[in-house]
Amino acid sequence: MSDASTLDKVRGLAFWQGKVDPVPLTGGITNTNFLVEDAGRRYVVRVGEDIPEHGISRAAELAASRAAHAAGVSPAVLHAEPGILVLDHIDGRTFAAADVRADLDRAVALVKRAHEGVQLHLRGGAPAFWVFHVVRDYAHRLDAAGFRLKAELPRLLAISEKLRRAVGPVDLVFGHNDLLPGNFLDDGKRLWLIDWDYCGFNSPLFDLGGLASNNGFSEAQTERALTLYFGAPPDAALTRSFRAMLAASLLREAMWSMVSELHSSIDFDYRAYTEDNLARFEAALAALDGP
């Protein structure tokens, strides 16, 4: 959908009480977002179709967004139709990685509250997000497309299997699975979690690994996050499982970017993002058996 037709679609929603002038918001790399003011109230409109190559289902996103609001962690969904979500606007500050690190206690508490609460409010079927399946699926797609790094795929799949074994048995929670700093908002009183594109049942270690890797946690900050989440300092077994899942989360992010290089029409430097995440993955892999 072109920019002009997307704007026309947002302007034409029957939800509005009057004429609106949507203002594009930056930052979305799987959807297009707009700020809309109507009848003295502000809204965020998310526009995006299903993305099968990434397992994104907008029906699942809608169900998770509604459940997350009921759990008290995300803004309300005020209107929905195919490809469109209209959300209550949160008047607050979007976090950068430094903000997440500076507000570590509240960020971890929000993630744990989401893990414990969102699943209680879900209705209908719910997806799973198992990182090792995602990596295998991405590898099949990249291999079939003759991707520029095709020769590396067998090695990456072998490492993924080693990481799966290192993670070991897991508990299941309903995860967000995309804990980038921009998905945290601070309204001055509390934090909010937004954007449930990649929602699904998963190990809590995946979200904790994503939280640490996406926000540049130090070893001390990572240990504090695990201690806050689990209620006690991590032992050697939990630390190893976490490190393996952190490496897997970085591999998945790199391969997500590889697939996006092939399929996405959004103006974003996916090739540079691929290379950055591959470098971070290799560093996490090297540190897996470190101190």
Largest sheet: 5 strands, antiparallel
Q: What is the 3D shape?
A: globular
Strand portion: 5-15%
User: So what's the CATH class of the largest domain?
Assistant: Alpha Beta
Distance between the termini: 50 Å
Q: Overall mean pLDDT score?
A: 94
Q: How many helical stretches? A: 10
Annotated CATH architecture of the largest domain: Alpha-Beta Complex
Please give the share of residues in helix. 40-55%
Roughly how many Å is the radius of gyration?
A: 19 Å
* Order of helix and strand elements from N to C terminus: HEEEHEEEHHHHEEEEHHHH
State the CATH topology of the largest domain: Aminoglycoside 3'-phosphotransferase, Chain: A, domain 2
| Number of domains as seen in the coordinates | 2
Spatial order of strands in the largest sheet: 1-2-3-5-4
Oligomer: single chain
**What is the CATH homology-level superfamily of the largest domain?**
Aminoglycoside phosphotransferase (APH), C-terminal lobe
Domain Aminoglycoside phosphotransferase: 24-228
Keywords: Kinase, Transferase
GO molecular function: kinase activity
InterPro entries: Aminoglycoside_PTrfase (IPR002575), Kinase-like_dom_sf (IPR011009)
Describe this structure in words.
The protein has two domains: 3-88, Phosphorylase Kinase, domain 1 (2-Layer Sandwich), CATH 3.30.200; 93-287, Aminoglycoside phosphotransferase (APH), C-terminal lobe (Aminoglycoside 3'-phosphotransferase, Chain: A, domain 2, Alpha-Beta Complex), CATH 3.90.1200. It starts with a helix and ends with a helix. The relative contact order is 0.13. The chain contains ten helices and ten strands. The longest helix is centred in the C-terminal third of the chain and has 28 residues, at 236-263. Helices cover 49% and strands 14% of the residues. The model has no long low-confidence stretch (mean pLDDT 94). Helix 9 runs antiparallel to helix 10. With 291 residues, the chain is an alpha+beta fold. A five-stranded antiparallel β-sheet has the order 1-2-3-5-4, covered by helices on one side. Strands 6-8-9 form a three-stranded antiparallel β-sheet, covered by helices on one side. Pfam families: APH. This is Choline kinase family protein. GO terms for molecular function: kinase activity. Residues 24-228 form the Aminoglycoside phosphotransferase domain. Keywords: Kinase, Transferase.
